[in-house]
Amino acid sequence: MKWIFVLLFLACAAYVHLRGRVRHGFGRQLLDHSTFMAPVNVLMYLCSRVPTKPFIVPEQHFPELEPLRQRWRDIREEALHLRELQQIKAADGYSDVGFNSFFRRGWKRFYLKWYDEAHPSAAELCPRTTALLREIPGVKAAMFAELPPGGELRPHRDPFAGSLRLHLGLDTPNDDACFIDVDSQRYSWRDGEWTMFDETYIHWARNDSAGNRIILFCDIERPLRFAWARGLNRFVARHFIAAGASPNREGDRTGGINRAFKYFYAVRLRAKALRERNKRLYYALKYLLVLGMVGFIWWL
C-alpha cells in the first residue's frame, strides 16, 4: 500500500513538473512547494470546470467579475490615493513569506483581503473597493500591486491550484516593455483591461518601461465539478493558504505561516552563508534533508 501512495505522489509530481513548456531545473523543482502540493493540485486540474491552460478569458467563465472591470476607475482612484499616502509598500520586517522570497526586486503591495474579510486598514483606506470585493464571494484574496521601473518578479509557480489569478490594469505604462510572462506567453498590462492566468504555471514579470505600474491583483476560486472537490479546495484555502495573511500595518491580521517566518528566515540566512562558503556541503545537506523527509514519511 505504501508503494502505491509513493508511486501516485511521484506521478503527480512529475505531471506538475512537465505540464508546462517552461520548467524549473530538477534540483529546484525537487524542493519547490508545488511538488509537495502536487497530489492536491492534480485533483484540482482534473475537476476544473475551466480550461487548465496558462491564460483564461475571464468574461467567458466569470461573468460575476464584470463589476470590477466596469468600476476600474473608482478602484484606481483609491489605489492612487494609497500611493500618495505611501501605503503601497514593501513588507515591514519578515511578516510576508512571499515578499521575502521572490517579490523583493522593487515589488510593492497593499493587501485588501486574504482568504478572509478585508484588513481593517483596507476597509478604512479603500472603502469602495473593499465593499465591491465583498459582493463577489469568488474573490478570495486581493491586493494593489505596484511594479516600478526596473522592478522584477522572479520566475516561480504558486503552490496551490485552487485559484486563478486576475490582474486588472489601473495605472500602467501601457507599454509592452512592462509585462508578465506565463509559461512563455506574454501579456502587457493596459489601463482598464484585465487578464486571468493559472499561477501554477511558471511565471515572471518585468517593468522595463519608464512608467510605474499599479494593478488590482485577485485570487479567484477555481470552479470545480464536484462538491467534494469544492470542499477540499475550501478546506486547504481556509486552513493553509489563509495562514499566509500579511499585515499592511499594525492591527491587521498576520497568519501563522508569516508569524513563524521570521524564525525560518534566520535559518535561511545561515544556509545562504553556508552556500557562499561551501557549496558542496550546502547541497549535500540539502539533499540529505529531502531524503530524511522521504524516509520519515515512509517510516510512518
UniProtKB/TrEMBL annotation:
Q: Which NCBIfam families match?
A: lipid_A_LpxO
Q: Which organism is it from?
A: Tahibacter aquaticus
**What top-level branch of life does the organism fall under?**
Bacteria
May I ask which residue range the UniProt record assigns to the signal sequence?
none
Q: Name one GO molecular function term.
A: dioxygenase activity
What is stated as this protein's family in its record? Belongs to the aspartyl/asparaginyl beta-hydroxylase family.
The question of whether Membrane is a record keyword is answered with yes
Membrane spanning stretches: 281-299
Q: Which InterPro entries match?
A: Asp/Arg/Pro-Hydrxlase, Asp/Asn_beta-hydroxylase, IPNS-like_sf, Lipid_A_LpxO-like
The alphabetized UniProt keywords are: Dioxygenase, Membrane, Oxidoreductase, Transmembrane, Transmembrane helix
Gene3D superfamilies this protein is in? B-lactam Antibiotic, Isopenicillin N Synthase, Chain
Q: Give the Aspartyl/asparaginy/proline hydroxylase domain ranges.
A: 70-223
Name under which the protein is recorded: Beta-hydroxylase
